[in-house]
Amino acid sequence: MSRGLFIGGAWVEPEGGFYDVLDPATEGTVGPAPEASQDQVQAACAAAREALGSWSRTAPEERAAILGRAADLIRDRLVPYVELAQAETGATTGTARAMQVGVAAARFRRYSRVEPAEWAIAPQINEAGPMGKAGVMGALAVRQPVGVVACISSYNNPWANAAGKIAPALAMGNTVVVKPAPQDPLSVYRMAEALAEAGVPPGVVNVVSGASAEVGEAVVAAPDVDMVSFTGSTAVGRRIAEVCGREMKRQLMELGGKGAALVLGDADIASAVSGIGTTFSFYSGQICTAPTRVLAHRSVYDRLVEQLAAYASRLKVGNPREPDTVVGPVISAAHRDRVESYVELGRKEGAVVVAGGERPGADVGFYITPTLLADCTNDMRVAREEIFGPVVCVIPFEEEEEGIALANDTDYGLIDYVWSRDVARAFRIARRLRAGGVGVNTVGRNMEAPFGGFKKSGVGRDVGSYALHAYSEVQSIVWPG
Q: What Pfam families does the record tag this protein with (predicted)?
């Protein structure tokens, strides 16, 4: 399946050989993935640097047309791409189709729409003085590409996450070196293949993969790299930021989350259960935006816990290729062990396991039963640390101010949620939450809204037009009127 690394528009034999990519549902081998050497990482970055000049001068309309053709190619190959995504990630068929490959195609289509890269600034009228005669100064603000962008994507969605970085970066005239997650890099190579077929010139898109951390570290530290766009854990993001800080490289970091869901006494409980319940199923809880920390008003606490437990117990866990499966596997055996250790830690800390907590009976596959931990407190590790699995903690509160304080008492701040029938009240509370996004009576997303986190959940914003800003520098051009 793998033809090697993709460097400078060519498929290159990896100097580190190949390693096996495993199917989380069957534990079988999906295919071999290439292991780049540090010299090959440098070669990929150099190829991106060499291609930058001509690509950045390519007309925005031409760049947009290429992205549009890439979107069409991905749509045309939806079935094999979905099968590959499902094999690599363990996603259910609906998730792989709609939220992985489907979103990737939509993101390339979104950035095939040309937007103004410059805008006028109101003229400044200067009176005569020590600096010269009276006059009018015109000005223009112009978006310029940052340069070579290292795109380091996460394992939970190799299609949508990588496309969300590559598409706006290319639209703004940058070139990219993509380092996919080691667990599921094959999908990203197919994406590069589609981009090349769509007309992306050699060197504009490069892909280097590897199971070892040294590959990603080499990409981040490469002298030819001007910016790093990373999605992953806060711990890794902190190390990347240290390297970027030494060289003043631009950063876009989408890191961990521990989303608080405030369920007020007047909430629509059925709606809250449906929204919070997505944590049990969507990507098997492997998503940073999940409402994993539920803060329930004491008046609805017992009812909410009872309904969440019933919701979790109804979900079918198993083979993601079967149409009635709701919860597929997590990405690896090591991650399954990690999530299970948190459930056991919750028990030791005093939480009550009211649903799940046991491994399902499958003979193969990295499955976890959706788990609900009740009677938690906000100082428990299960309530403070990102578990990244189908585990939800419920914490009671008495007064509105206490609920807001609990929501903000966290190192993270990616997305929080508020459920209340009083929409004005919900919006007022939302404005007080220290999170980059707040869902009011929904876990849905507006795909043009800026996305990113406060505190240790990241640096910067992307999605929609905000991604075009993220992957560009603003240059001022001034002249006398």
A: Aldedh
Same domain, 192 and 273: no
Residues 409 and 282 in one domain: yes
Average pLDDT, the chain: 96
Tell whether the model's pLDDT for residue 40 goes beyond 90.
yes
Q: How confident is the model at residue 1 (pLDDT cuts 50, 70, 90)?
A: low
Evaluate if residue 192 carries a pLDDT over 90. Answer: yes
Tally of CB atoms within 10 A around 352: 14
How is 414-439 classified by DSSP, letter by letter?
SEEEEE-S-HHHHHHHHTTS-SSEEE
Q: Same structural domain for residues 238 and 280? A: no
- Determine the pLDDT at residue 61: 96
Q: Which of 409-427 are b and which e, b meaning 16 or more Cβ less than 10 Å from the residue's Cβ?
A: ebebbbbbbbbbeeeeebe
Tokens found for residue 302: 């017992």
CATH number at residue 133: 3.40.605.10
Residue 186 shares a structural domain with residue 305: no
- Same domain, residue pair 214 and 292: no
* Interval 102-137: pLDDT, tens: 999 999 999 999 888 888 888 888 888 776 777 888
Whether 288 is catalytic is yes
Please, what is the Cα angle at 140 between 137 and 144, to 5 degrees? 145
115 lies in the same domain as 44? yes
Domain that holds residue 181: 5-255+457-480
Distance CA 212, CA 238 (A): 18
CATH number at residue 419: 3.40.309.10
Q: Tell me the three state secondary structure of residue 473.
A: strand
Q: Mean pLDDT lowest for which of 83-97, 108-122, 278-292, 401-415?
A: 108-122
Cβ-based neighbours of 248, under 8 Å, separated by 6 or more: none
Exposure string for 159-171, b = 16+ CB within 10 A, e = fewer:
bbbbbbbbbbbbb
Tens-digit pLDDT profile for residues 446-458: 999 999 999 999 9
Helices marked H in 9-157 — which ranges? 38-57, 60-76, 78-89, 93-95, 102-110
Residue 217 is among the residues annotated as catalytic for this protein: no
Q: Which of 88, 254, 340, 386 is catalytic?
A: 254
Catalytic residue among 45, 288, 376, 393: 288
Give me the number of domains the chain comprises: 2
User: CA torsion 216→217→221→222, rounded to 10°?
Assistant: -50
- Same domain, yes or no, for 154 and 203? yes
Average pLDDT over residues 164-176: 98
Mean pLDDT across 276-301: 95
Alpha helices in 199-277 (DSSP H): 213-221, 234-247, 269-276
